[in-house]
Amino acid sequence: MYEGTMVRFTRRTVLRTLVVGGMSVAAGSLLAACGGGTPAGGGAQPTTAPAATPTTAPAAGATPTVGGASPAEELWDVASYYGTYDVSTKQPGRPAASLQGPKYEKWTRPKAKKPYMIGVSFPHLKDPYWLAVDYGIVDEAQILGVGIELVAAQGYNDLTGQINQVEDLANRADIEGIILAAISYASQDQLVTEIVKNKKKPVIEVINDIQAPDIMAKALVSFYDMGYAAGTFVAEDAAGQNVTVVFLPGPAGSGWAPDTVDGFKAAVEEKVPGKVQILDVKWGDTGKDVQVSLIEDSLNAYPDVTYLVGNAVAIDAAPDILANRAKKPKLVSTYIIPPLYDKIAEGKVAAAPTDFTALQGRMAVDMMVRILNGEKPGVDFPFRSGPIIKVVTPQNYKEFKYEDMFGPRDFRPVFSVKPKA
Amino acid sequence: MLREVTATRVAAFGRFGRLRSVIDQLGLLPVLLIVLLVFFSIASPNFFTRANLSTILTQALFLIIVSVAQTLVLLTGGFDLSMGSSIALVSIIVGLQLLDHADSPTTGLLVATLVAIAVATGIGALNGLFVSLFRVPPFIVTLAMMTAVSGLALHVSRGVPIFGLPGYFSSTLYTGKIFGVPVPWVVTALVLLIMYVVLHWTRFGRYWYAIGSNAEAARLSGIAVRFYLFLAYTIAGVLVGITGLLLTARVGSGEPTLGASFPLESIAAAVLGGVSIRGGEGNLFGAALGAVFLVMLRNGMNIIGVSSYTQMIITGGLLVLAVIIDNWVHRER
């Protein structure tokens, strides 16, 4: 009678399933600390790769607040690239060599000639990072009077889901252009070409880099540069001393975490050759429980380490773990999330670079509106541009507007904005 | 006489009979645990230290409780995939409640505890209701529940961690001590003790084993199968609530994706510990040992600096090895 509810597995078949059929799922789950897969818990980040020229700002000036600014006003500092996008000169994460830049300039806001309707696709909307992008896009759309229809896939492992969602958006007659935060660097080229060439709708990229030869513009910051900024901070903070680092980048299989390691290594080798020794790199999913365990293991393995550097979830968790330990390494994050900002303000965390996440969302909307207005990317406005990375520290945190990084504290996810009639 | 019996038993195992006999009697897991302990202790001086062993145990506690909860359900022939999302929802709601009671520790702790247990128990009860009353397969019920509860946790939290929790929360439930023993250790010990009593000294426990072994036979014997199935999922929910509460205290914030890896980890821990997914076989301590094994393996590899990619390969390889040894020990004699 109840056999229907009983699962016909044995201990052996389950083990076989875990090992053979579900190796990727089971092993990844069993060793969540090993990382890979979908970032979670405030850790989702772009799929970027090394940039040739780090765009860390030399000065730590604050960016101006956006809300209420007039359209003609010069807004925040950006690093821009102009010219023609030739995909044959493109390497992952780096701006295409065919582009000219970086040009450091002020961002300006366009006026929408019509109340356009813009589709937006995210890898997911499950953490503060993408919530900040959502805020930037939504608020900018409201300022410009354009409409937004946002869809979010299930995470970085949901590539097919995102492709389906973008196709659905492109098939809607009212959607005039698409802002894409691509899950994959190289697997959505055809999708972009199909929409741009066949459906005659512009597609631009936000946050995550993409190869796509027909992508029309990019509003993003490289996570290589974020790592570079963190490395520069450690190099300067060490003040010529030999220091040791345990690095907790985030998920091993992700497109963004390895870039932070590469950027960090490049910075310390360039600034203080041989002075910064990376004792270990501990990969792991950005679930907070996973990162807590990784930190504990790392501190037991390397009790004398002088810096813990890594993803924001780990560095956010670290102060509580260090509270009961005699030796306290300095904490440096490779990016920033809201709770980390508060810990920097309290002096518990030494530094975290910010990519002004919300501003990147604003820039994407501005770029799309310019294209729909008839302006030419790479000529009338940059083909690729992003806010200049700055490092937030306990000394300068007050200079940064919380909303530019994360959006308002009480912001809730918004999926749809109606265009002004 | 005893020697003769032993000799007969060993002979029954054929080639490598003594080794197979030892593993058969002790179980594979204690042997593997000792092997791991010795290996990592030799490989790194930082492994077999008081601090690291304490870390391993602390890290394992949460998985132990969830594995015990999973064992209850496994014994009845089902399993529960929604435990991770239950933990996440508990974490978020506990976080919100704590923010509302930031200045009153006693009230805050009481409310947080009650809410944690109520939320997870409710989810467990719903699972139990669908499985027992509507006879929906546990896989489908708990998969659907996992999805729905995960969405609810994200909705309530806006996808943002609930941070800035009052300090008394973690200092009581995570770093706090009772007679010098950390609170999570005490709670886990109590959970194991109480659940052992329930499983082995009460009707509930015996009925769960009976239902898992043969539900129809249990029903014909007069056991209210539906009720006891419902009860298994509900009590598992209580344990998940306790885990969610303790884990939130450990990470110091309400996290909408907390515990995502627990459902599969807990099933693996229980199965490694000798609990049969077909139901009716296994015990709590095997599941607890399975949890310790998984955590110790991960910790040891971290301590000796095994790369993350290699860790995944080794874990997969050890699971294969476990299957092979299991087949070898239990093959037809």
Description:
The complex is a heterodimer of chains A (421) and B (333). Chain A is α/β, with parallel strands linked by helices. Among the domains of chain A are: 100-220 and 357-388 and 403-410, Rossmann fold (3-Layer(aba) Sandwich); 223-354, Rossmann fold, CATH 3.40.50.2300. Helices cover 34% and strands 18% of the residues of chain A. Chain A contains 12 helices and 15 strands. Chain A has helices spanning 11-21, 23-30, 128-144, 159-171, 189-198, 223-238, 257-271, 288-301, 312-322, 338-345, 357-373, 402-406, and strands at 74-83, 99-108, 117-122, 147-152, 177-180, 203-206, 218-219, 243-248, 276-281, 307-310, 330-333, 352-354, 384-387, 390-392, 416-417. The radius of gyration of chain A is 22 Å and the shape is globular. Chain B has 333 residues and is mainly alpha-helical. Chain B has a single domain (58-330), classed as ABC transporter involved in vitamin B12 uptake, BtuC (Orthogonal Bundle), CATH 1.10.3470. Helix content of chain B is 76%, strand content 1%. Chain B is built from 15 helices and 2 strands. In chain B, a hairpin with a 2-residue loop joins β1 and β2 (181-182). The longest helix of chain B has 28 residues, at 105-132. Chain B is globular. Chain B starts with a helix and ends with a helix. At the A-B interface, α1, α2, α3, α8 and α9 of A face α4, α7, α11, α12 and α13 of B.
List the helices and strands and how they pair.
The complex is a heterodimer of chains A (421) and B (333).
Chain A: H1 11-21, H2 23-30, E1 74-83, E2 99-108, E3 117-122, H3 128-144, E4 147-152, H4 159-171, E5 177-180, H5 189-198, E6 203-206, E7 218-219, H6 223-238, E8 243-248, H7 257-271, E9 276-281, H8 288-301, E10 307-310, H9 312-322, E11 330-333, H10 338-345, E12 352-354, H11 357-373, E13 384-387, E14 390-392, H12 402-406, E15 416-417
Parallel strand pairs in A: 3-4, 3-5, 5-6, 6-7, 7-13, 8-9, 8-10, 10-11
Antiparallel strand pairs in A: 1-2, 1-13, 4-15, 12-14
Chain B: H1 2-12, H2 17-26, H3 28-43, H4 50-75, H5 83-100, H6 105-132, H7 138-157, H8 167-173, E1 177-178, E2 181-182, H9 183-201, H10 203-213, H11 215-220, H12 225-251, H13 262-272, H14 284-303, H15 308-330
Antiparallel strand pairs in B: 1-2
